[in-house]
Write a structure and sequence with these properties.
Helix 4 links the parallel strand 4 (93-97) and strand 5 (115-118). The two termini are 22 Å apart. The chain is built from 5 helices and 5 strands. The longest helix has 18 residues, at 123-140. The protein is α/β, with parallel strands linked by helices. It has a single domain, classed as Response regulator (Rossmann fold, 3-Layer(aba) Sandwich). The protein is globular, with a radius of gyration of 15 Å.
Length: 152
Amino acid sequence: MDTPKNILIVEDNPDDIDLTIRCLKKNNIINKIDIVHDGAEALDYLFCQGSYANRDPNIMPTVILLDLKLPKLDGIEVLKRIRADARTSLIPVVILTSSREEVDLIKSYQSGANSYVRKPVDFAEFNDAVCHLGLYWLLLNEPAPKKDLSKS
């Protein structure tokens, strides 16, 4: 049985969350979407701790859409921790940010980002970008095989 392909959105801006979800649904990407609002919550979700202690650790997101400018723990630090842990190191992480800073782009790739996408200001362009992200990472990309976490 195939594992469901789900999306984790790590974003603190409610407008960007709503817009991203609306764009995914508009483009018939109806996968399960989980949302966390800061870097610390993202790590709790991924590592099944804190308020996510009862989450099934064998069900990981197929792709993570990660903003950089987050409260509590910024996106670069979240990305570094994702890459440093065997349970999450192979999950594709797409930086989806409004940052136009070259240093953010460089740090993202140095820290292990699979992709870096600047959020377009125009709704139609944003819709296209999110649609392409969803189609590529959920339908076209062949994900790394999932490990049996009970043997780790």
